[in-house]
Give the backbone structure.
Amino acid sequence: MTTMENLELTVEERAANLTPEELVQLVGLVDYDADADPFPVTGWDAIVFVVGNATQTAHYYQSAWGMELVAYSGPENGNRDHKSFVLKSGSIRFVINGAVDPDSELVEHHRKHGDGVSDIALEVPDVDKCIEQARRAGATVLREPQDVTDEHGTVRIGAIATYGDTRHTLVDRSRYTGPYLPGYVAAQSKWVKRDGEPKRLFQALDHIVGNVELGRMDEWVTFYNKVMGFVNMAEFIGDDIATDYSALMSKVVANGNHRVKFPLNEPAVAKKKSQIDEYLEFYRGAGAQHLAVATGDIIASVDALRANGVQFLSTPDSYYQDPELRARIGKVRVPIEELQRRGILVDRDEDGYLLQIFTAPLGDRPTVFFELIERHGSLGFGKGNFKALFEAIEREQDRRGNL
Ligand SMILES: [Fe+2]
């Protein structure tokens, strides 16, 4: 059991007025012994996106997802290569990068992958210890530990490679008080929220799913175990996540305190092309598939997001009428009709239940999307919903002619 009094919150979580109790509920935060961890990770630092038009994408995350602009780097303050917008919601930080210079490296990244996640940056207390451990365990070090300094202090940064062209930048910002990193200036949203819109539509990041190539899931599970000291969580294999046409295998790893959770998917052989195959084809390789954001009120969040034009996958009415589902999920905090009206899925395991819903792909390619998740004790990922979810995804895939 989690002992609440030992749970230490990050600076971002405290700034977002989150309590340990809320973090336990929202993302399943647990206490653990960081001293025995070869690669201690405190939590998420930032999710860094490369997009085709950062100016407009930053507007979208403010206007549709209720995020707040907090920092900026671009030609106006000496960055002639690209524009970079830093947005926050609760304890989550997104960084949206788009090329200004046609010769920027970001242009090639975007040509190959489309809009996507280039960097899942993690906050660590000791960058050097992590990089040393990663090197010893055979990881590719992309950036040696380095101090970066400006008038707000010093950040220590290193980076290692993970699946595809994705990286984990490791950040120790304990000696830094600036709005993000040196090179960024504080910025403020010009977007004004509608009256009555919730203050935040999501409070924290729960998990990020990585899609990897056929036959390589276990390799990446081992990478997170051996290189980063992550532990295995729930495990789903083969038939668990299969429809007649589409199948995948998935295993989940988490850091010691469970703030950072990475389900890793690989396609499984099925009659038709699976959604993982479709992702791998259009992303041109392995990459981050979906980001699950945690909310304490999924009903209010979904209503606000829909009003803002965000599109969700639809769930068939038959899902809610299935007597097996009704028997399995038991009583949840809202009438099932409220969930049905919004297409919110529900799953239960021995620890409790969760409510979840998935968006349509965010960009032009059928690759990255979001999940909203409201946990009530369950530390799962919606295993019981995978079949219902995949059937919904396949209907969309079929409409695009990719099934
Ligand atoms: Fe998920």
User: Anything to note?
Assistant: The domain at 11-186 is CATH 3.10.180.10 (2,3-Dihydroxybiphenyl 1,2-Dioxygenase; domain 1). The mean pLDDT is 91.
